[in-house]
Amino acid sequence: MENKQYPFYIDPKLCKKCGLCIAFCPTKVYITGEDDLPKIEHPEKCISCKMCFYRCPDFAIRLKPEVA
Amino acid sequence: MQGIPDSYSDYIAWEQLPHLWCAGCGHGIILKGIILALGELDIPPHKALLATGIGCSGRAGDYIACHRFQGTHGRTLAFATGIAAAQPDLTIIAFMGDGDAGAIGGNHLIHAARRNINITAVISNNFNYGMTGGQFSPLTPENSITSTSRSGKSESIMDICSIAAEAGANYVAKTTVYHVRELHKFLKEAISTKGFSLVEVISPCPTYYGRYNKIGNSPEMLNWLKETALPLEKFQSLSHEEKQKFFWRGKLVQRSREDFLNKYKKQQSAMK
Ligand code: SF4
Ligand code: SF4
Ligand code: SF4
């Protein structure tokens, strides 16, 4: 099995709550959470397609908080 | 990160974030695509240059950690041509908006393509001038509502890809930010192609175009792009009337005409 590294960390300081990650995750890993920030609700459903990472316009989706 | 080039983080000017673009603006998706393509091609930040123009997209250079240059409106390609001639080892990406590339800079674009200078032009086409309040550009579809066409744009759309292809570009492709894998593929191919390359990317400006034309917010605009951007062959089979309702995406040209600098150098050494 592929080494599971996703879903990612969402940086609340960078996220602008556009909703793209929530809308286009094919397995609905995210839900709209507190303050309209995306919340990783179903990590077990992630198929590691990285679409959320690719489409996030704000560089807010990352693997680890310490990257920056 | 698995499947994400190691240089990804090095390429981003994290200290400048959050960027000034609106929520759901497509510029960030394209900038990220450029960063990922450069990383996958093993081009390190000190070997790459991002040249931008004026407008919302013109700010892209602030958020990238490679060499960068912001020129005057529409003149990006003229400056980038000079840089390409002086620094032939740099990978040069000219990131422009539709106003930059099609209106004020249209002439530069034709000649950069004709000259076949080694630059990759990436056009973020959001169908309007976002920074100044959503005026239409030559690339805005006919009948669109914008702040300068309240009853619908009377002029027809400018097909910048066909113009660049006809002028002599070595690589021309078009896609949307919804089709993000295709975007990454085209960007990689464009950057790898010697000579002039152009990738047009249809991108949402939810603040103006999406709102004025009642398409909606960013996810709604991406759904709209998903429905309306058809593969090139399918688009070509439509009637003239039907074509007005859709966009095409795909690769228009890929060839290996000798690039300007190569030819120039050969001619110079033949004289000696
Ligand atoms: S990687 Fe794919 S499946 Fe996993 S959270 Fe992101 S979009 Fe959803
Ligand atoms: S795509 Fe990025 S900016 Fe948009 S809601 Fe998701 S994490 Fe936030
Ligand atoms: S005005 Fe439009 S193009 Fe400019 S940052 Fe906002 S969404 Fe993007």
Topology:
The complex is a heterodimer of chains A (68) and B (272).
Chain A: E1 9-10, H1 20-24, E2 30-32, E3 38-40, H2 51-55, E4 61-62
Antiparallel strand pairs in A: 1-4, 2-3
Chain B: H1 27-40, E1 48-52, E2 67-70, H2 76-86, E3 91-97, H3 98-104, H4 106-115, E4 120-125, H5 160-167, E5 171-176, H6 180-192, E6 197-202, H7 206-212, H8 218-228, E7 229-231, H9 232-236, H10 240-243, E8 247-254, H11 260-271
Parallel strand pairs in B: 1-2, 1-3, 3-4, 4-6, 5-6, 7-8
Antiparallel strand pairs in B: 5-8
Helix pairs in contact in B: 1-6, 3-4, 4-5
Summarize the structure in words.
The complex is a heterodimer of chains A (68) and B (272). By secondary structure, chain A is α+β, with helices and mostly antiparallel strands. Chain A has one domain (8-62): 2-Layer Sandwich (Alpha-Beta Plaits). Chain A contains two helices and four strands, in the order βαββαβ. Chain A has helices spanning 20-24, 51-55; strands spanning 9-10, 30-32, 38-40, 61-62. Chain A has a two-stranded antiparallel ribbon with strand order 1-4. In chain A, strand 2 and strand 3 (38-40) form a beta hairpin. Chain A starts with 8 loop residues before the first strand and ends in a 6-residue tail after the last strand. Chain B has 272 residues and is an alpha/beta fold. Chain B has a single domain (9-270), classed as Rossmann fold (3-Layer(aba) Sandwich), CATH 3.40.50. Chain B is built from eleven helices and eight strands. Chain B has helices at residues 27-40, 76-86, 98-104, 106-115, 160-167, 180-192, 206-212, 218-228, 232-236, 240-243, 260-271; strands at residues 48-52, 67-70, 91-97, 120-125, 171-176, 197-202, 229-231, 247-254. In chain B, strands 2-1-3-4-6-5-8-7 form an eight-stranded mixed β-sheet, sandwiched between helices. In chain B, strand 5 (171-176), helix 6 and strand 6 form a beta-alpha-beta unit. The longest helix of chain B is centred in the first third of the chain and has 14 residues, at 27-40. The structure holds iron/sulfur cluster (3 copies). The site of one iron/sulfur cluster (SF4) has 13 residues of chain A, from helix 1.
